[in-house]
């Protein structure tokens, strides 16, 4: 994988555009420290910072097709590139390397805007068609690879990280209140929204097409869960299908011209991936990586050791101390380019640095399993929850809000959103509170109602988790951005299209058999893991929150939360922040981050974000 960026102007590039491309590339150098490549034409300038993983000698970008009339740069791993290359070669395409990314311009030459439909991988690409004067940006189906873009005069800027766009002088440095409202409302940001006014995240499974001065977004893929009710399935047959699909996904992600390691958290998902990787390549000296904690209440070293011993890996671990949160908080905000509700990303960053310290750059992880296989408590609660309509005004408002958001006033996801809006409104300064109707995330649905209509409660929740929680939070600020801060690529077998296809066909009654979360994955785990791992209850680790940071008494933390600082920023209400500080600092106060939002963490990381990127409020 790599980092890409570029500029398109329908009226032609300016001298400033041509001169600023190196700075835009340098802003994302951490994503690709090995090489840099550029393509510059009359109307487009684009480039790539490369992290060499496939075809180390000849995989330089840009890549070309159609007698160099089509140019492409990509942040990508294409796991089915061999099969695609064989088909394209049989149809006359000529390749100059073994690099997986080279299939992208050739697919565009053959399939046009359908090029992404057959790709199995994690990717964000830019393809420029010189003959048509058409620029096409694409993002993978599940949103593993990021892609950001912004309109400028007569065109757009794009890049793998917002930092690249900010290097261009035409991008205003403004905080988007709508992005902040999403942080206050949902698990995290939801594409196309970002925390930067005027900067958009290309949605997963979408293309952005810039042609003849027009910019349009086209969807090429979405999770398509079957309409309810589903017939009971054959558990044994479905388990065999899931086994084959996940093994194939792991095998594809072990292919690289550099060593591939595995994360071992101590939980079922990463243990299953590690065990499959070992069975697929038992003679490979596999490196594994874990993070441990001094607090025995949250430390999982015991279960990590079981996996380590089972696969016989060369194991590396690092102990995460409470001071590591303070030392890395600013970096995870800058890397993630967003405000945060939690500090766990600091753990992920320390773990990625451990991988890099061993001279490695690729690692497998278990992200995506909870969202596909029912790994959160909400799935189980849906089995017993009954909507009791009381008829009072508050319930009527909530039902109306849920109908607007999910197309179903009776479906409960995460919280009562209208009530939450009243609660979080007190956190905003008077000026933003007065304008909140302009940017409220509750004014329109963040998802496609058609993909929810007629589905079971399980599949509705899964779809929302896959859209609102996974891509722009767990795969972005929690994974991609902090891993690439250390020049490490994470790979996600559970998000393989074949695994998703099997998961969508498993009846909810099997997913939660007997009310047990992730029943099917546990059944699969029984084939690969000792009982103490697959029978273990789900453990949700939560890192130290803002009450811990307040107790540490660091001057810079206190300064950012001081009333005069908060008032000067013009985002939050200084009186509300002061009340929260007093509450969080009170003896015996305990914030349950599993069920409660850490509002002071949002305030603190928003202040860090604005300071780091020199932002004012839009």
Write a compact overview of the structure shown.
This protein has 618 residues and is of the alpha/beta class. It is built from 25 helices and 19 strands.
The dominant shape is globular
The number of helical segments is 25
End-to-end separation: 33 Å
Helicity range: 40-55%
Tell how many strands the DSSP assignment holds: 19
Largest sheet: 6 strands, antiparallel
Measured by DSSP, the beta-strand proportion falls in 15-25%
The stretches of 5 or more residues where confidence is low (pLDDT under 50) are: none
The average pLDDT score comes to 93
Oligomer: single chain
Radius of gyration: 24 Å
Please list the strands of the largest sheet in the order they lie side by side.
2-3-1-9-8-11
Structural class determined from secondary elements: alpha/beta
Description:
The structure is a single chain. The chain is α/β, with parallel strands linked by helices and 618 residues long. Helices cover 43% and strands 16% of the residues. The chain has a 6-stranded antiparallel sheet. A hairpin with a 4-residue loop joins strand 4 (63-65) and strand 5. Helix 7 packs parallel to helix 19, helix 9 packs across helix 25 and helix 23 (563-569) runs antiparallel to helix 24 (574-585). The longest helix has 29 residues, at 457-485. The two termini are 33 Å apart.
């Amino acid at each position: 994988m790599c980092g890409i960026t570029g500029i398109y102007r329908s009226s032609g590039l300016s001298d400033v555009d041509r001169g600023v491309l190196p700075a835009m590339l340098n802003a994302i150098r951490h994503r690709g420290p090995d090489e840099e490549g550029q393509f510059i034409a009359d109307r487009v300038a684009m480039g790539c910072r490369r992290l060499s993983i496939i075809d180390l000698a000849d995989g330089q970008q840009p890549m070309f097709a159609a007698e160099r009339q089509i140019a492409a740069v990509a942040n990508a791993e294409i796991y089915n590139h061999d099969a695609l290359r064989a088909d394209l070669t049989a149809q006359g395409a000529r390749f100059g390397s073994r690099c997986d990314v080279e299939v992208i311009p050739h697919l565009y030459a053959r399939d046009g805007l359908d090029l992404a439909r057959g790709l199995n991988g994690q990717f964000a690409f830019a393809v420029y068609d010189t003959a048509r004067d058409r620029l096409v940006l694409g993002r993978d189906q599940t949103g593993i690879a990021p892609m950001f873009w912004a309109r400028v005069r007569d065109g757009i800027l794009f890049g793998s990280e917002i930092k690249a766009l900010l290097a261009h002088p035409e991008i205003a440095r403004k905080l988007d209140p709508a992005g902040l409202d999403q942080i206050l409302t949902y698990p995290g940001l939801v594409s196309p929204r970002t925390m930067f006014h005027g900067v958009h995240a290309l949605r997963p499974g979408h293309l952005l097409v810039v042609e003849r001065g027009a910019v349009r977004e086209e969807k090429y893929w979405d999770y398509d869960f079957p309409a309810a009710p589903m017939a009971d399935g054959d558990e044994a047959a479905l388990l065999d299908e899931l086994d084959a699909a996940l093994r194939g996904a792991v095998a594809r992600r072990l292919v690289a011209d550099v060593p591939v390691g595995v994360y071992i958290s101590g939980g079922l998902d990463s243990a299953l991936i590690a065990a499959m990787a070992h069975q697929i390549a038992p003679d490979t000296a596999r490196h594994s990586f874990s993070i441990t904690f001094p607090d025995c209440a949250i430390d999982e070293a015991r279960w990590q050791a079981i996996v380590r011993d089972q696969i016989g890996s060369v194991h590396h671990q690092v102990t995460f101390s409470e001071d590591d949160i303070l030392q890395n908080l600013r970096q995870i905000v800058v890397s993630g380019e967003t405000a945060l509700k939690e500090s766990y990303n600091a753990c992920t960053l320390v773990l990625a640095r451990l991988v890099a310290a061993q001279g490695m750059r690729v690692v497998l992880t278990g992200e995506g399993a909870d969202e596909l296989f029912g790994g959160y408590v909400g799935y189980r609660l849906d089995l017993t929850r009954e909507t009791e309509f009381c008829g009072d005004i508050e319930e009527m408002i909530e039902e109306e809000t849920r109908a607007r958001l999910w197309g179903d006033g009776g479906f409960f996801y995460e919280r009562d959103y209208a009530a939450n809006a009243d609660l979080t409104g007190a956190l905003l300064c008077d000026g933003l509170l007065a304008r909140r109707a302009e940017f409220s995330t509750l004014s329109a649905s963040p998802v496609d109602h058609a993909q929810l209509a007629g589905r079971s409660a399980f599949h509705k929740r899964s779809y929302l988790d896959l859209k609102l929680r996974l891509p722009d939070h767990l795969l972005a600020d929690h994974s991609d951005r902090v891993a690439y801060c250390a020049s490490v690529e994470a790979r996600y077998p559970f998000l393989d299209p074949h695994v998703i296809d099997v998961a969508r066909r498993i009846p909810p009654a099997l997913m939660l058999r007997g009310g047990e979360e992730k029943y099917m994955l546990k059944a699969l785990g029984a084939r690969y893991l000792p009982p103490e791992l697959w029978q273990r209850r789900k453990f949700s680790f939560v890192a130290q929150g803002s009450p811990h940071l307040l107790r540490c008494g660091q001057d810079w933390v206190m300064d950012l939360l001081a009333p005069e600082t908060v008032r000067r920023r013009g985002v939050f209400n200084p009186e509300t922040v002061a009340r929260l500080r007093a509450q969080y600092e009170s003896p015996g106060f305990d914030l349950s981050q599993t069920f409660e939002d850490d509002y002071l963490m949002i305030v603190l990381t928003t202040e860090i974000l604005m300071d780091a990127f020199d932002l004012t409020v839009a």
